[in-house]
Amino acid sequence: MPAVCRDARSVQSLLLPGARGPRRRPAPAEQPSSVRPRSEGERCSFATVNDAELDALIDALTLEEQVSLLAGTDNWHTAELPQHGIPAMRVTDGPAGARGTTFTGPSSVNVPSGTALAATFDPALVERIGALLGRETRAKGARVLLAPTVNLHRTPVGGRNFECQSEDPHLSSRITVGYVKGVQSEGVAACVKHFVGNDTEHERTTIDNRIDERTLREMYLQPFEAAVCEANAQAIMAAYNRINGPFAADSKELITDVLRGEWGFTGIVMSDWFGLHSTVEGIEAGLDLEMPGPTRDRGAKLVAAVESGTVDASLVRAAARRMLSVMDRLGAITDGGPGPETTRDAPEDRSLIRSTGAAGMVLLRNEANALPLDPTSVRRVAVIGPNAAKGRIMGGGSAMVNPVHEVHPLGSLRDRLGGAGVEVLDAVGCTIHRTLPPPRRDWVSNATIDYFATAEDMNGGAPPLRSEDLPRFSLIWPEDPSEGLTRELFACRVTFSLTPDVSGPWSFGITSVGRARLFVDGELVADDEHAAPGGSFFGIGKAQFVASHELGAGRAVRVTVEYVNEGAGLMRGLIMGFDPHVIDDLVAAAARLAATTDASIVIVGTNDDWEAEGYDRTTIALPGRQDELISEVAKVSARTIVVVNAGSPVAMPWIDEVDAVLFVWFPGQEFGDALTDVLLGDVDPGGRLPVTLPRRLEDSPAFEHHPGRNGVGRYLEGRLIGYRHYDTIGREPLFPFGHGLSYASISIDGATSGDGVVRATVTNAGGRAGVEVIQVYVHDPVGTGAPDDAVQHLVGFAKVELAPGESRSVEVALDPRWAMHWDVAAHAWSTRAGARELRVGRSSRRIDHVLAVTAG
To answer: Sign of the CA dihedral 124, 130, 132, 134?
Structure first.
């Protein structure tokens, strides 16, 4: 059960203009240091701050001024009221970094994605990452980080699973608390998202997800409750979808009754971008901030609703007061407005990201001690795969940042092994792009972009209003492109010289929100006017339109792409991709190379073509010919080590053919060095699976019910998601939740329980230092009689590092609700008295000790 929320911050007075002297920055937040269960009926609450002066400030505002505070002015800023000393406040996307107000810069630190953080099973380490992100947010002049994403992994194909943490609400809650505490320790609000039920991308802005009350309480609401009642989260983002009828942004039951009423939340609730669809219902539900701006549903509409009596003026006042109260807690008022956007790049940050990436890497299989790799035992090593030379460090969509620094596997392994006298050879093996990739740098020169006010100006020979070097081949314009140009109507022309390295047919692809045309030496090659909808640009854009054109090796051609944003609606963007038709068999070439080496490291996975905001995957199969590549390499290689670089589960039909498998997720900007640390044994693989890896998608619990049908998503699997499903019905996963191997020889020699704690003796009998995660599951042999009662579920865990030969006692604190369930009839948490089992082990399927206990 979550602890009482307490805001121990000493906040300086918010002074009205002309009051007693200058405003001062508030002292840093003091985070709660302990967790205790709250009694029945006890509310979480924040200490009230500056009540009298805050009320005076609110009452000095006109209705129009109060309403203006309840909607953004653009994509990233709240309204300012300089006549009252109220500046704008900036928000910025997370959770794998703090991007700032543009997608192209300034560059940002990129930390491991959500599943990689959860795989660490280390809330204290995640808290350090959160603090780093808090500093990054401040560096971008912002005070609210739109993170973490805490929705559960209902299905392994969820498009944003990589952003989220786990299929298990207890693990997600613990990681969430660490993340939020860390972010907010830097005077930044963590905006926890998406409240609630945005668990997949299918029809995410309209679908009505029907989730029964007990499943909501025991599963999907748990991470949000922990964020509020333990970590004092200062902001919550409402989901796009409907929940049992109303849109999440209009749900009075969730926002007013549960979030504010039961949990005592006094922070701000904002909409997801364009996720508010009402003037009346949203304000009555308690939604404070419509994003982005300019407003669509508030402003004059809300003022009119108040003046007509449709909306009570007290609701507007309360929402505006909450906005100013949170700004005051954060020091956003005393700072006088958003600061400049700068780039941080500290050595200690790189080191933390590197160690965190390694701490989340999960060793799934290690036959005959294939790992760690000893450089003195090999002369030639092949590094193979589409994610080898350039691995995937993050997923796609709003979570993306422009990384300040990147280290990839091939380069890192070549540096480390080459320095030890090992020859490192490489082969791509196959390609996996779903859409055509951007061109290689050596193909392109003289790339520029010209901006025009209208398509007529662009096509009529008018001079451009602005010209610049092309920053990248993926362009997005959430704001006006520049002074004199509006995001509602502008045009641009991209030109560059392309020098092919091979002769033959080349593919040219354009993807847009709006309309794009591509010319080669003045000849129209591609026009996406009639391209089908395709999920690009967060689900708003078209599918990539691809055309072929013959090119000659070494002969430069002039490529021109014209873009017009007419009809682009909520988003404006253009992506250009180019690729020669590959004739050579890349799989066969990689296998020939592997046969000549002492070990093959095959780095496979996904990228932002497959895991991104806006669409779900349709399969858990590795894209392209990667399964074939692994099998062919395994046939001829002396040792085959597979590294899976993906944000969520993939199938492994080759699992019995290879020697070792390491699942590394999207581990952030230091990917290459973190991976090398683990492969060479400098660091023990510290990760454990935060999700179950199924053998087939058909085995997963929501398979029969996802995606929704006729605009409705029915969560008919109830609470049996993830390992609860597999363990309860007796279905064998590929690898179970919590699984992960160490290079050390660690045993759990004994366990006892009492006073809400399980104590276990853990011993490392090997000659290497190692890591273990002690996991405690509760089994109720009687249950509550519900058909979706799980045979067991996680109620506690502790991560321990042991030196060679070391033995120690480890305490695992149990979730205070370990013996409780949500009683729908009583609308409260309830305990069924009786016998239970506490199962102590290393995964949901590897239990070392069973302890008989009595609840109630």
So the answer is: negative
How confident is the model at residue 141, as a pLDDT? Answer: 97
Instruction: Return the structure tokens found at 440.
Output: 């290689």
Q: Mind listing the pLDDT tens digit for each residue in 599-615? A: 999 999 999 999 999 89
Chain centre to alpha carbon of residue 53: 38
Q: What is the Cα–Cα distance from 249 to 247, expressed in whole angstroms? A: 5
Q: Where are the alpha helices (DSSP H) in 161-299?
A: 169-184, 213-215, 222-229, 252, 280-285
**What burial letters (b/e) apply to 43-72, b meaning 16+ CB within 10 Å?**
ebebeebbeeebeebbeebeeebbbbbbbb
Q: Token digits for 68?
A: 């203006």
Helix or strand run (H / E) with residue 363: strand 362-366
φ/ψ of residue 354, rounded to 5: -65, -50
Cα separation, 127 vs 36, whole angstroms: 19
Report residue 120 as tokens.
Answer: 């660490």
Question: In angstroms, rounded to a whole number, what is the distance separating the alpha carbons of residues 714 and 540?
Answer: 24
User: In angstroms, rounded to a whole number, what is the distance separating the alpha carbons of residues 26 and 328?
Assistant: 8
Q: Which tokens sit at 24?
A: 């001062």
What's the rounded Cα separation, in Å, for the pair 516 and 568? Answer: 11
pLDDT tens by residue, 156-168: 999 999 999 999 9
Q: Which residue from 139, 133, 237 is spatially nearest to 180, judged by alpha carbons? A: 133
Report the predicted TM-score, pTM, of the whole model to 2 decimal places.
0.90
Q: CB of 617 within 8 A of CB of 610?
A: yes
Residue 830, classed as helix, strand or coil, is strand
Q: What is the DSSP string of 637-675?
A: -SSEEEEEE-SS----TTGGGSSEEEE--S--TTHHHHH
In sequence order, the β-bridge partners of residue 162 are none
Give me the helices (H) in 681-760, please.
Answer: 723-729
With a cut of 50, which residues of the chain have pLDDT below it? 1-49
Backbone angles phi, psi at 373, to 5 degrees: -85, 125
Q: Which is it for the CA torsion 179, 182, 183, 184, positive or negative?
A: positive
- Looking at residue 250, its amino acid is D
Tokens of 534: 């395709």
Q: Pick from 594, 644, 587: which is nearest to 426 by CA?
A: 594
- Read off the tokens for 802: 């042991």
Active-site residues, by number, are: 272
So what's the pLDDT on residue 535?
A: 66
Q: Work out the angle at residue 685's Cα, subtended by the Cα atoms of residues 680 and 690, and round it to the nearest 5 degrees.
A: 150
Residue 491: name the closest of 572, 575, 565 by CA.
565
Query: Contact at 8 Å (CB) between 264 and 45?
Result: yes
Cα–Cα distance for residue pair 41/827, rounded to 1 Å: 11
Provide the b/e sequence for 441-469 (b: ≥16 CB within 10 Å): eebbeebebbbbbebebbeeeeebbeeee
Q: Are 708 and 693 spatial neighbours (Cβ–Cβ below 8 Å)?
A: no
Who contacts 399 (Cβ-Cβ below 8 Å, separation ≥6)?
93, 94, 95, 96, 97, 113, 149, 160, 162, 163, 613
* Structural element, H or E, at residue 259: none
Spatial distance between the Cα atoms of 408 and 394, rounded to a whole number of angstroms: 12
Coil vs helix vs strand at 544: coil
Q: What is the pLDDT of residue 480?
A: 75
Which residue type does 369 have? N
Residue 821 to residues 1, 271, 370, 657, Cα–Cα distance (Å) = 11, 30, 45, 44
Q: Can you read off the two tokens belonging to residue 11?
A: 């906040």
Beta sheet of 144-146, edge-to-edge order: 91-93, 144-146, 189-195, 235-238, 268-271
Dihedral sign of CA atoms 470, 471, 474, 478 in order: negative
What tokens does 386 get?
Answer: 């589409």
CA-to-CA dists, residue 829 to 37, 42, 53, 854, angstroms: 12, 12, 38, 18
